[in-house]
Amino acid sequence: MYILKSTTKNELRKVQATINKELASEKIIQDIYEYIFNVEGKKTRALISLLASKSSKIRLSVRTDLASIIELLHTATLVHDDVVDESELRRGTKSRKPSLDKFIQCINWRFYIFKSFYINGKTWYSIYIR
Fold this sequence. Notes:
Strand content: under 5%
Oligomer: single chain
Order of helices and strands: HHHHEEH
Number of helices: 5
């Protein structure tokens, strides 16, 4: 377990807020995200992204967007692996929502990938076009 500074905790909260904002329009997608990847999870990949990109030259919004992209792509790979492997468990807990069929799960992981590309496009637009 690691101890985070309050500024880093706030940055991770912003990452989660970005993800929630992007997934909020689709209730079933949000439900699956919460089921598969605990919203208050450790988010190690996002944390590494935030810490590695800490610089006065990189805006916080860009850093949190990039960390959100990494988190969504990671979640997409978890969902994909669960479907392909037909895994019932991941690290001792149910890997996917049992009430949903594989087709819905496949759409779900594709949606996460799409949203990560969407955030990426918005981020690059904000850097280079504005």
